[in-house]
Hints:
The structure is a homodimer of 331-residue chains.
Chain A: H1 10-18, E1 35-37, E2 43-53, H2 64-81, E3 85-95, H3 101-118, E4 121-129, E5 135-145, E6 160-164, H4 169-178, H5 189-198, H6 207-213, E7 216-219, H7 224-235, E8 238-242, H8 250-258, H9 262-268, E9 275-279, H10 284-293, E10 298-305, E11 312-314
Parallel strand pairs in A: 3-4, 8-11
Antiparallel strand pairs in A: 2-5, 3-5, 6-9, 6-10, 7-9, 8-10
Helix pairs in contact in A: 2-3, 4-5, 4-9, 6-10
Amino acid sequence: MPERGERPGEFGMIARYLRPLADDPGAFGLTDDAALLRPEPGFDLVLTKDMVAAGVHFFPDDPPESIARKALRVNLSDLAAKGATPIGYLLGLALPADWTEDWMAGFSAGLAEDQRRYGILLLGGDTVKSPDGLMLSVTALGQVPAGSIVRRAGAAIGDVIVVSGTIGDAALGLRLRLGTLDGSAAGEGASHLLDRYLHPQPRLGLAEAVRSFASASLDISDGLIGDLGHITRTSGVSAVVEAARVPLSDAARALISADPTAFASIVTGGDDYEILTTMPEARFAAYQAAADRAGIPVAVIGRIVEGQGPPVVTDAQGNAISLGRSSHDHF
Amino acid sequence: MPERGERPGEFGMIARYLRPLADDPGAFGLTDDAALLRPEPGFDLVLTKDMVAAGVHFFPDDPPESIARKALRVNLSDLAAKGATPIGYLLGLALPADWTEDWMAGFSAGLAEDQRRYGILLLGGDTVKSPDGLMLSVTALGQVPAGSIVRRAGAAIGDVIVVSGTIGDAALGLRLRLGTLDGSAAGEGASHLLDRYLHPQPRLGLAEAVRSFASASLDISDGLIGDLGHITRTSGVSAVVEAARVPLSDAARALISADPTAFASIVTGGDDYEILTTMPEARFAAYQAAADRAGIPVAVIGRIVEGQGPPVVTDAQGNAISLGRSSHDHF
């Protein structure tokens, strides 16, 4: 194993760990100032940028493979929600002074595996010394047939509200990591929750169906209710979510049975990276069929209604449930 | 003036300070997950990403207007060097916990002024809490007529080496800031050097001429000799630079007269953000005429030669000058 003193400098590190990720001809082997992208005629480009910082979005001692994947996947999740097919990404990497070759090897391997999984390549980026902790800034590029991006604005009164997968797993996993929730009721399911926090699953398999059927769409990163509020606010409407229809994993269900107050974490906690869409009810069957073909479960959880207020979550009697704060604030 | 306790949260901050910068329809007023860019037919996109961190690339107490400009301009400088016209940018902003509204107002004003100056708009980005100091990640997008990007690779034996502006001012300015150089010989010129460090001038006025005439091009960020080495290495050639032909400001000239060892800082110190190009000698007159029309001085400083070694700087007798380390390493 190389000693600390034998670490390569900036250019050596790029050549060893990042250049192998940059096979795209427009990346110029990461030896130029900029990357080149020849847009495909008839497509719009979709651009998204998410930063993640140690101690804020991940734990400094998380495996480097997992940190790499999380930084990449939260961006791919944005593309999926907009109906876009990913093209590639630029990576900004601010490394603390004590980085090791082992760490970079793991980080690079995590990126390489996800590049294969999602069919994308590293186009370019920048590496700098971080005065403090690790910080990553990914800019991901995708494309949609011209004019077909799906926005947050667009939800119409009467539309059904649809989510993919299960909600709240990552928020519960984070609480288990932080020790603010007792996970014993979940048994071995606790590891599922921890994994959902560490490894978001961007729902790229839904992108085409989102484009075809959704009136509005985003990915849930700030919490179901907070993100639904982004849709309703930009669309000039309000929403009602039926608590009992929010899809839960077995582990999440077990934890709620033991501690009903955990439900608030599920719908406000964030980090789901599931796709939240609205659409006319008549389109849902076709959306669900397309999601089935992609192997991704989707479920109706409520309805868009007239109004200007924030989304309301109702119990089985139709009464509003109080959830405390409704959204994750990154500040 | 608002008290610390009245600061807006993330969404309020974005609405107040960043949304006014995002007039582009594809930015969706920064209310969506992603930005949309409809590429202009017949053009290639040029993508560049530079991160800057407090304590590494700028001083934490630099004016927020200046920090904003530097983060943006170092990216625009890359575009200019590639021959590209800027389109817009995405901003990643990791704010320390003690940010103030005054700071954000200054930061935002600096961006707004440069957006007008360079004809670009904010397209999107991300704001996160920084666990430590301020960090900025800008991804800038530009375009070139398809196939016309100018790369680092492309310098041919016999080409002249050309730089814009004056070299070394920012490196001397940084040394004055750090107190490692006595600036008294420069008199009032010291403020010019300090300003050159704080406010890079991206040479966008040269972009078209670079496209038309240069065989290879980059912007000088790591130091003249180190960056020239990037050109020679990717081009498979070597280079000779005549020290006496490197264009200097009056202030830099005064400092070298007082302390000849400062010359090494000038050619290796970095942060110039001038354009370093190579081209067949026969094209230089036309390049210079185009640069004149843009109001930007350009000068031949040497020649591309056969070989694989790093660039050599020669004195008036043609003897190689020893410069110590030849490039700034960000690590």
